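Fill in residues.
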C-alpha cells in the first residue's frame, strides 16, 4: 500500500488536477509518473500547498492523445510503481453508443414505473 493518495479536484481546460496527500505529514514529495498506453506524460507538475504532506498535482493532457474512443491515463508512484489513481476520457462514437444505451435503459425503467403506477392507481380504492 502506497504512502500517498491522490484525489481528483477538477479537470478543466485540458488539465487534470488532484491533491496528493501523504499518510505522514513529514513525508518527502512523491515522484509521480503519468502514463497513457502509447507513452509516458512528462509535463506533470507537483506544487506545494503550504500544508505539510500535501501537494497539488497538475497533469496537462496532450492534444494529440484526445480523440475518438477511450483514453485512460494512469497516475503512479514512480518509486514503488504502485497505481495511485487513473482517469479516462471518452469521445466520439464510443461515447455516442454509451449515451444511447443509457437512454434506452432509462426509457425502459420509466415505462416499468409508469405501468406499476397505473396498476397501483387502478387497484387502490
Amino acid at each position: 500500500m502506497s504512502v500517498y493518495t491522490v484525489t481528483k479536484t477538477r479537470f478543466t481546460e485540458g488539465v487534470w488536477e488532484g491533491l496528493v496527500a501523504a499518510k505522514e505529514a513529514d513525508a518527502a514529495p512523491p515522484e509521480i509518473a503519468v502514463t497513457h498506453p502509447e507513452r509516458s506524460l512528462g509535463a506533470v507538475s507537483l506544487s506545494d500547498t503550504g500544508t505539510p504532506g500535501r501537494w497539488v498535482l497538475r497533469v496537462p493532457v496532450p492534444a494529440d492523445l484526445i480523440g475518438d474512443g477511450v483514453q485512460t491515463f494512469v497516475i503512479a508512484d514512480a518509486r514503488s510503481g504502485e497505481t495511485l489513481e487513473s482517469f479516462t476520457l471518452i469521445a466520439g462514437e464510443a461515447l455516442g453508443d454509451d449515451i444511447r444505451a443509457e437512454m434506452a435503459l432509462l426509457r425502459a425503467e420509466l415505462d416499468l414505473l409508469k405501468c406499476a403506477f397505473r396498476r397501483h392507481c387502478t387497484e387502490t380504492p
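The longest helix spans residues 93-123.
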